[in-house]
Model the fold of this input.
Amino acid sequence: MLAGTAGCYSTAIGSKQAGVPWLKDSVEGRYERPIDQIYEAAIEVLRFNGTVVDENRINHSLTARVDTRTAWVRIEELSPTVTRVLVQARTKWGRPDVDMASELEKQIALQLK
Done:
């Protein structure tokens, strides 16, 4: 039965992990702010809530441990005035935690104010 529920999912930063692939695990926000300002706000939020495990300033992605969860954040410039933030969260067993992803995305938005 376990084999029927296992699989691989893609993370927000582009890697593959073992877990349940078809469940919603991420939220997105769009802001009229520069990409660097949003990146710094995301780092601050992840450090406040847990530990930043990996920072990639070239492709603007972050990986963090928050409690027993892993969170991934990817920041993309859609236009010179609009930046997209994608926050994804999963448990250590690969189950989605959209509530945590939503909370982290909301905190990033509040950090920008």
